[in-house]
Amino acid sequence: MKKGCLLFFVVAFVLSSCNSISNKPVSEKLSTAELSKAIKSDTLFTSFYEHIRKEVDDMSDIKKAKYNDVTYRRLFKYVKFLQDTTYWKPLSEKWEKEWESEYGIYLSKADSVLNYWKKYLEDNSLDKYVQIELARIDKEYYSYSYGLKEVNLGFRLIPLQGAIEQVRFNYGYKAKINGDSKYYEKHNCLSTTPFSAPTIRYWEVSYSDRDKFSGYNVETFLRDYNLYIEVTKIRKDGENISTDDFYIPKEVSDCLENENDYPFLFELSKDDLIKGLINKNYLGKRDYRSKKADEIREKKDKLCFDFLEEL
Q1: Phi, psi angle pair for 147, to nearest 5°
Q2: Are the beta carbons of 235 and 190 closer than 8 angstroms?
């Protein structure tokens, strides 16, 4: 069969399928007969109808009136166009090349910015003054019931550049298994007694966390949990040094927070960094493709485009 004839039959089939779908406004429900006819012509209409009904039923009367010319037939045809991968895939590939040509250079510039701030953080890290590690998990039990009364964590404080007069740090932890969230509760610790040699200081565990330590020693706890320790302030030689003294742009801190564990968020954060610190007119790859696609979607049928944007 010639290519032209094949194309004719495909187009004829699609048109026949769409013509079996009611021209009733989507603000109105289809009758059982109308719905049956539409589903028989295209089984994808089932999920389409269910989704549209959920959305439209919650619309105000004003919005329903605004989109009264959006019919099932018109919208379904438009949605099929949006799902046509043979149409969109070549365009997506074309847009990616365009993006690389116009904006790709900014990725290496963003890497340079991140490397600068990484070195800045390393040079100013309070970790170079003191090392802190979990050394003991001490438990006290009630004498009459042997129930857990108190848990104290012993942290070893190791001065690295002479005596430390005061130190403030946060610690937090999350399970290595089923601990996917990047967030964990921070517990603040303050030591006001000077030390010039390694020493162990103790802090009581809060009541809500007490049972989490009941069956653990240091070795088994570190086996099952990731422990995070952040030194936030020290006093050395009469001078207070705080992480608050070192300004870091939010765009940079977001990138560093997501870089290792959350690739998708890291990519979005990197886009924000470029827009905020390098080129305010920058478009990320996703935004560029979306902008190009929206131009076509809107031109194809502006009313349907606006309607879907409302949902």
Answers
A1: -75, 155
A2: no
Tell me how far apart the alpha carbons of residues 309 and 55 are, in angstroms, rounded to a whole number. Answer: 12
Task: For the chain, list the strands marked E by DSSP.
Answer: 130-141, 148-159, 166-175, 187-191, 199-204, 225-236, 239-242
Pairing of strands 199-204, 148-159: antiparallel
Amino acid (one-letter) located at 51:
H
> How distant is the alpha carbon of residue 2 from its chain centre?
50
pTM, full prediction: 0.73
List Cα–Cα distances, 16 to 12, 40, 191, in angstroms.
6, 12, 79
Q: Tell which residue, 20, 19, 26, 85, has the closest CA to residue 308.
A: 26
Cα dihedral 21/25/26/32 (nearest 10): -50
**Could you tell me if 79 and 307 are in contact, meaning their C-beta atoms sit under 8 angstroms apart?**
no
Domains of the chain are: 127-245 (2.60.40)
State how far the Cα of 49 lies from the Cα of 87, in Å rounded to an integer.
Answer: 24
What is the average pLDDT across 201-207? 93
**Cβ-contact 102, 127 below 8 angstroms:** no
Q: What is d(CA 297, CA 291) in angstroms, rounded to the nearest whole number?
A: 10
What would the pLDDT profile of 291-307 be if each residue is shown by its tens digit? 999 999 999 999 999 99
